[in-house]
Design goal:
2 copies of one chain form a homodimer. By secondary structure, chain A is mainly alpha-helical. Chain A is built from 6 helices and 3 strands. Helix content of chain A is 66%, strand content 8%. The structure holds a DNA duplex (23 and 23 nucleotides).
DNA sequence: TATTGTTATACTCTATAACTATA
DNA sequence: TATAGTTATAGAGTATAACAATA
């Protein structure tokens, strides 16, 4: 008797496997973020802005995997908390340009070492080469046109 | 002038990279699920139950990356829709045993081909070997103790 | 007409604590 | 005392559509 529907095992399902792997990594990251009362989403926005400099919201939404309506609310809150600043684009007045503030950068700086420790703990167990391969393959997967 | 806080680029951040990769894969999966009015979470529950047979809720929660309070609500809805059935464990009456119904299996069967097409489209672009490596590495990462 | 971003709304999930029943 | 699961609750994100301003 077949127990299941002959689907690929969940361990070989990309969506499920990516989620489980992410949950493993996020567990300690969440502990860190809880300690500074910052949501995962806001952390991603800070990371993206730190990397890209001043950018419009659509770019942030894409890079941080957030929908624009969610981002609108998140940025309003982050602006009120002084972590980002916003200004209208003078060339195209539909656009809002957003950048990280010194205070936002400070949050990243203060948590960089914890963040690195988590990464190194994973690297120590998986091996540097495997972890680099994984990151390469994840970049490849992101580039796929589905 | 340094633009950023000297953090690893977001493309080399495991949490962000795993999320972006997952969003890429989930885009067409979400289209599929929207078509049958099933949430991602319910889909994962069906996949897990199909694979594991009759199991208690804590196991489902762990395998499908859901918290027990979320799962309680989700299973209540799925039971009402006839996709899963529940019964009390006769040995340990604290436990509830859950299994997928024929109707639940039918949902998986009806969407197996779409699911496979998505996978094959990714495989065609990444290459079988790379995709297999990625799944192997994701399993390794899940096993890390953080 | 198309695009950027906001607002509105309904729904769902998350997270935590308190609780019940059972072990 | 500890565990499995439920309930309650607050908060936040998701998703869609409708809208305003601008191009």
């Amino acid at each position: 008797m077949t127990k299941n529907s002959d689907l690929k095992s969940t361990a070989r399902s990309l969506p499920i496997s990516l989620l489980r792997a992410r949950e493993t990594v996020m567990a300690p990251v969440r502990d860190m973020l809880n300690g500074i009362h910052l949501s995962e989403q806001k952390w991603r926005v800070l990371r993206v802005l730190d990397e890209l400099g001043e950018v419009e919201q659509s770019i942030i939404a894409k890079e941080a995997c957030l929908l624009l309506p969610s981002l609108t609310r998140i940025l309003r809150s982050m602006e009120a908390d002084g972590q980002v600043s916003r200004r209208q684009d003078s060339q195209d007045k539909r656009r809002t340009l957003v950048q990280i503030t010194e205070q936002g950068r400070q949050i990243l700086a203060e948590n960089m070492s914890t963040s690195q420790e988590i990464y190194q703990k994973i690297e120590a167990q998986m091996g540097r080469e495997k972890l680099e391969s994984l990151l390469d393959l994840l970049e490849d997967l992101q580039a796929v046109r589905v």
